[in-house]
Amino acid sequence: MNRHRWLVLITIFWLTAFPQTVNAAPLLQAEAVEATVKFALVNLYLQPSQSSAVIGTVMAGWVCDVEGRNDATTWLLVTCGARRGWIDRRLVNVTGDLASALVLDANVLTVLPPAAAIPAPTATTLPATPPPTFNGWKVSYFNNPNLQGDPVAYADVSFIDFRWGYESPMPVVPVDYFSARFERTLDLPPGYYQFTIQTDDGARLWLDDRLIVDEWHGATGSTYTSGALLNGRYTVRLEFLELVALASIRFTYEYSPQTPPWTANYYNGAPTRGELLYTQLENAGTVQLERNWNFASPLPDAVPVDFWNGRWTGQFYFEGGNYYFRARSDDGVRVYIDQTLVIDAWRDGYTDMANRFVGIGSGKHTVTVDYYDRTGQAFLQIWWYKDTTMPGVTP
Q1: Distance between CA atoms of residues 94 and 299, nearest Å
Q2: CATH superfamily of 137-256
Q3: What is d(CA 279, CA 262) in angstroms, rounded to the nearest whole number?
Q4: CA dist., res. 333 & res. 386, Å (int)
Q5: Taking Cα atoms as reference points, which of 22, 30, 14 lies closest to residue 65?
Q6: Deepest of 87, 110, 334, 387, by most Cβ within 10 A of its Cβ?
């Protein structure tokens, strides 16, 4: 056997016995990128935006495969078992090189996979833990519209004035179909309190266990009011409902040490009075009775903008003597003292009328003001003062 043949046989044996010594370049594999959900309940969206449709939810502890990202890397396209959608980057912990993930178009989810049940993670998902104390309003957020289950988040706020628009109050709260509860204990000096809620959508207001506003339904920019004579410590609870689209809630209250002098009744119809729509106590204004509704309703959601009637009744102390009564309005107005008609301008349009009443007896008398608004601008001013310039009949 010649030398060349021996060399060939030795080479074949060596390659067969020791293949790992062959100098072959390894095949490079991309590192997997995963996202672990940080919060109790997080939405998956059709597009990388909270204003797009919610197509699923994932829970804390779930590990999802990252398929891609948007250009700013603020949203990730993830697959969590059979669920697939865009998720806010802030709501997950990422392992792996996120820069290696593909940049995807926002409309990549043209065909959605069918929803399928995914077993819950083995780790127990705990509800959000509230801070030990609250200095202002304690806010509890729920991931459903009916305040069900444990809150998913808490907050401590000094006042209630939120305009979330199309966004979520907190990352763990869905954009739509959520609810919130605001709670606070207030020490209130004796007097009259007028509560006002401006909301989109529904609201309920409780004083201790007494429900004083019950408007738990969808609405658009509605205002609700309620008043009460109060004195002492009260637990105030305001509940908020968000369904779809815009979300906002504002709560205020006004205090008067005295009971408002007027009882106001609002009716349908103008100039003829129809059904009673709403009754409440009301304060005076800069004069004995002053209102300027302009082109709006006096009580949105309770009284129409046009074609309505109002009656204000109150008791006032008069010194004995002669008095001037004056009325400015648009549209019609009538003023009575006890049962006597003092001013009669029951007609459409602007009115500025005064009349002198001779011989009012000393003591309390009932003043009644009737008013109607047909269309257009609406305002009302009623005031009176004692006539000290001319003699008259004094009882």
Answers
A1: 52
A2: Galactose-binding domain-like (2.60.120.260)
A3: 11
A4: 21
A5: 30
A6: 87
The CATH topology of domain 262-386 is Jelly Rolls (2.60.120)
State the Cα–Cα distance between residues 48 and 69, nearest whole angstrom.
Answer: 9
DSSP secondary structure, 317-384, as one string: EE-SEEEEEEEEEES-EEEEETTEEEEEE-SSSEEEEEEEEEEEPSEEEEEEEEEEE-SS-EEEEEEE
CATH H-level, domain 34-103: superfamily: SH3 Domains (2.30.30.40)
Q: State how far the Cα of 368 lies from the Cα of 142, in Å rounded to an integer.
A: 48
- Between CA 129 and CA 153 the distance in angstroms is 8
Percent helix, strand and coil across the chain, each to the nearest 5: 5, 50, 40
* pTM higher than 0.70: no
Q: In tens digits, what is the pLDDT along the chain, a chain of 395 residues?
A: 444 444 444 444 444 444 443 333 333 335 789 999 887 667 888 889 877 777 877 777 889 999 999 999 999 999 987 788 999 999 899 999 998 899 998 887 754 444 344 344 444 445 677 766 788 999 999 999 999 999 999 999 999 999 999 999 998 999 999 999 999 999 999 988 989 999 999 999 999 989 988 889 988 888 888 888 899 999 999 999 999 989 999 999 988 888 889 999 999 999 999 999 999 888 888 899 999 999 988 887 789 999 999 999 999 999 999 999 999 999 999 999 999 999 999 999 999 999 999 999 999 999 999 999 999 999 999 999 999 876 544 33
Do 137-256 and 262-386 agree at the fold level? yes
Domain boundaries, the chain: 34-103, 137-256, 262-386
Residue 164, token pair as written in the block: 């979330």
Find tokens 């009349």 and name the residue.
355
